[in-house]
Each structure stands twice: as structure tokens, then as C-alpha cells.
Amino acid sequence: MQARRVGLFWLSRSCQVQGQVIDCVYIAVSARDARYTRICVASVRYFYPDIPIRLLVSGRLQRGLADELRQYWNVGTAELPRGEYGWGFVKLEALFAPPGEKFLVLDSDTVLTGQVLETWNEFPASFLVDDEEQSEADTKRLYYDWEKVRKIDPSARPPRFVFNSGQWFGTGGVLTRDDFAPWVEWTMPRTLRHPEHFMPGDQGILNYVLNQKAAIDGLCVERRQIMRWPGHAMDGLDVESVSKRAAAPLVVHWAGMKRVRQRDMIGADLLAFFEKVYYQRLPAGNARRVFAGCRDSFSHSLLGAKVRVKLACRKLGAVRRAPVAG
């Protein structure tokens, strides 16, 4: 069954929350995305100079990054147990924030193009996610296979909505760890109990739990276009319109589109703009920006080389273990 658009009436009929106010923006970060983290922070501060920003840290951060963000950009770090959470799982920690806390969760490879936080005020709800459409095949590939899940959970239903978990609005205390316990091992790193049925990481399981809660318990989950993927289009989202605050208020997310050199990416002008904004606050900002760009390119090239060597070694090992014919 194709994941379909759901009428706002169905999703809103049980909404009771009024006067929505965002308390915090959470940004999921790790050591490999320091450059994107800086750009993301600058974009949030460009439109919201005073809103609390907290980092959801998985693993280690680039040395000095947390202090730099705190000193020059008033960015804090969420109080979480230190460790490697696994792909995207640290974002689930926002759900267990103080009850009633309203927040936006972002991946670090995102930027705001306007005052997107006000979008939630138009549709008061416990959650607001991107209004995405996918075919049945892509829903199973990118999120979860509800038919297979139903063999484990007879109450599983076809998803009424799906969304990329790199940007979503939520409310603390609405969901608990117990809601995820049948599907997630709360170890460090987090792991899926049935990884063959869900996309790796947090995305599939978050979609599943929200769909089930909406369908069975009437949880209020609104949908609105809040994400722009550069692979589809960047119409109207250029530096001129964004800098003048004339662009549509969206979250641009370079999911699966990062390159060694940022200037080779679609929408690179926005990345460069907010990177310049970021370093304007730092002493010797221009020199730091050039150095950071070179370090980031080198780091990604080195990582790519390590991956290629690892794959080559695996291939060579497989050849050596193969039985000799004859």
C-alpha cells in the first residue's frame, strides 16, 4: 500500500495543544560533521538569535568544537550519557526531554531558509513532520516493511505517513523508552531488535512508533512541507532570497548528497553563505574558515580512502578463502 497524504482533519481531530511555543532546537552531531554543524548553527541563529540550541552528541566531537560553539554562538550540549549511540539514534533522546518541552530536531547537514519554527503554530500538535510521499517499495526500503513487522506485531498497520528524521518537531514526555523497547535495545550503541524489517538507524523505528501511536492511540501528528531536498530542486532558495529573509521557511537537508568538496554540491551557495556568517563572529575568521575547509576535505578524503582499502581487503580475503577448482 502506498504511503499516502493524510487529510489534516484525520490528523488534527484529537489535537488539544494550543499556543505552541518552541523551547529548544536540538542538532545531532558527531566528529565527522563539524563543518556542517557550524553551518547549521549559523543558519538557526540567523533567524533565531536567542532560541536555546543544544547539541545531541554521539561519540566524540572535533576537538574544541563544543567550547567554540558555546563561546561565540551560545550553544549548549544536551545532558546525555557520553558514548557512540549508533546511526541517528541520539535523536531519539530528545523525546525524553522534560515533559511538555517543545523542540525541533535537526541533522547537522541542514540549514534553515527562514522562520520555520512558526510553522508549528499553524497546526498545534504533539508532533509535526515533513509531508512526504513515497511509493510502497520506497517506503519499505527507506522506512520499514509493515507486512513483515506484522508477523511480529499483529497490530502493525500500513503507514499513513513517512518522513525523513533529519528534521521534525516533537514534544518531550509524550513517548517513552517503553514505547520503543520491543524494537530497540537501549544499549550503547543502540541497536534494532529486528534490523531486517527497518531501515538502519532511528528513521524507520521512529516512523513506525509514531504511525502506530497515531493510528491506535490517536496521537496528534501533523504534516506540512518543512524539508527541501536539493536533489529535487532548490528553486527560490538562493543566497539572495534567504539573506533578505524573502525565501520560503524550510529546512534544506543534504541527506545522502555530501561531497568531499562542498562547492561541488547542489545548493553550495547556501552552505558557503552560512559558513561565512559563522566565522564572522570568530577572531581571524577568514583564516579559520579556509583552514577548516581544507581540514574537512582532507578528513573526508582520508575516510574515503580507508573505506576503499577496507573493501579491497575484504574482497582479497574472500578470494583467498574461495575453494580452488579442479
Describe the protein in words.
The protein has 326 residues and is of the alpha/beta class. It has a domain at 8-228: Spore Coat Polysaccharide Biosynthesis Protein SpsA, Chain A. It is built from eleven helices and twelve strands. A five-stranded mixed β-sheet has the order 3-2-1-4-7. Strand 11 (227-228), helix 9 (239-243) and strand 12 (251-253) form a beta-alpha-beta unit. The chain is globular, with a radius of gyration of 21 Å.
Main beta sheet: strand number and arrangement? 5 strands, mixed
> Strands across the major sheet, in which order?
3-2-1-4-7
The CATH superfamily name of the domain at 8-228 is Spore Coat Polysaccharide Biosynthesis Protein SpsA, Chain A
| Number of E-type strands | 12
Low-confidence stretches: 1-19
Named at the architecture level, the CATH assignment of the domain at 8-228 is Alpha-Beta Complex
Distance between the termini: 50 Å
Structural class: alpha/beta
Per CATH, what is the topology of the domain at 8-228?
Answer: Spore Coat Polysaccharide Biosynthesis Protein SpsA, Chain A
| Rg from Cα | 21 Å
> Please, what is the average pLDDT?
87
The level of helicity is 25-40%
CATH class of the domain at 8-228, named Alpha Beta
Strand residue percentage: 5-15%
- General shape: globular
**How many alpha or pi helices?**
11
Q: Report the order of strands and helices.
A: HEHEHEEEHEHHEHEEHEEHEHH
